Amino acid sequence: MKYRSMLLVPAMLCLLGGLDLRPVSGEVAVEDFDSIKLYTLKNSSGMTVKVTNFGAIITSIVVPDRDGNMGDVALGYNRVEDYINAVDKPYFGAVVGRYGNRIAKGEFSIDGETYTLATNNNANHLHGGVIGFDKVVWDAKPMEGDGWSGIELSYLAKDLEEGYPGNLNVKVTYRLTNANELVIDYLATTDKKTPVNVTQHTYFNLKGEGEGTILDHALMLNAKKYTPIDDGLIPTGELADVAGTPFDFTTAKAIGRDVEQKHEQLTFGLGYDHNFVLDKGGDPKAATLAARVTEATTGRVLEIRTTEPGIQFYCGNFLDGRLQGKSGKTYVHRGGFCLETQHYPDSPNQPNFPSTLLSPGEEYRTTTTFKFSTQ
């Protein structure tokens, strides 16, 4: 199944219609099966972002280097079949939920009632379950505004879908601005109390997708603390200082500098796969700087700002060269990194963590901005 494609620019929006598949007889009803499409956002400087309504996946982010050469910095595929059939399900570019990250033993309780979820990550629940937000077809609506183009994706997660209570209406909006910013807005409402933690799971390589490892990228995380994990990758509940550990990214350093150190947390995660507690300043709900990544050979810079309290840093520990990306190059061990803005893992079972519980009449609203530049 190939994507149907569309181009969105501030001056023009166009949408390719679905195929008109008419019944072949009076007894056989044939419905439109052409529901998966690919949308291309393009700004005035030539940056492009491609998004499919399957899994709300970002399939491509093309940005310039310091010499103006364009390159795709997001790992992914050209065909939807490859996202569906990929070994190890790496969640390339997807929106994950209803609860991104892990929930211990696939269980949580609300008002004395226990809910049981799929345990799809060893003994734990990961990224919304067997069929999470990354594996469903979203409704899509092109959008445009002054200096930006975008796409609004919406999905209704029904009561007890993947075990979660409540009918959850979710909207994710991608907006590409002329300042080379990709702004992601999340909105959700529910008719029953339910935990919500939706995030974006793009893997980046600022040298270009398939261009070796990301160990030479310099990373700064605006976090003096992180949440240590047990050997099942579930937080222990502690907020630990990064100072004096391999987890100190308060000053930019190469991702690979300390990743092979002998440290229990690196052993548990097979490298970095941890939630960092963002330093939010005076307003915990304000959009603040979370991370800054630079790559010396291309001069590309990625800055991330978010309203969320945490960010998961994952350095591609499970990539092993078996997956071949859109350019035909294999994705090697640590060939991409993720910086997933979020609430902390296992928050429904950790009363000392910021709450992820959404109640009827409330709105779940978060915003994350990925800004690209060069130096």
Explain the overall architecture.
It is found in: Cytoplasm. It comes from Novipirellula artificiosorum. It catalyses: alpha-D-glucose = beta-D-glucose. By secondary structure, the chain is mostly beta strands. It has a single domain (4-374), classed as Beta-galactosidase, Chain A, domain 5, CATH 2.70.98. The chain is 3% helix and 37% strand. The chain is built from two helices and 28 strands. The strands form seven sheets. The protein has a nine-stranded antiparallel beta sheet, with no helix packed on it. A hairpin with a 4-residue loop joins strand 4 (48-52) and strand 5. It is globular, with a radius of gyration of 20 Å. It starts with a strand and ends with a strand.
Structural domain tally: 1
| Count of individual helical segments | 2
Principal-axes geometry comes out as globular
Give me the CATH fold name. Answer: Beta-galactosidase, Chain A, domain 5
Family: Belongs to the aldose epimerase family.
EC number: 5.1.3.3
Enzyme class: isomerase
Binding site for beta-D-galactose: 101-102, 201-203, 273
Brief synopsis:
The chain is mainly beta. It has one domain: Distorted Sandwich (Beta-galactosidase, Chain A, domain 5), CATH 2.70.98.
What's the structural blueprint in terms of helices and strands?
Elements: E1 4-9, E2 12-13, E3 37-42, E4 48-52, E5 57-64, E6 70-72, H1 80-85, E7 95-96, E8 102-103, E9 107-110, E10 113-116, E11 125-126, E12 139-145, E13 148-157, E14 168-177, E15 181-190, E16 194-195, E17 199-200, E18 218-221, E19 225-227, E20 240-241, E21 253-254, H2 264-269, E22 273-277, E23 288-294, E24 300-306, E25 310-314, E26 338-342, E27 357-358, E28 364-374
Parallel strand pairs: 1-3
Antiparallel strand pairs: 1-2, 3-4, 4-5, 5-6, 7-17, 8-11, 9-10, 12-13, 13-14, 14-15, 15-28, 16-27, 18-21, 18-23, 19-20, 19-22, 22-25, 23-24, 24-28, 25-26
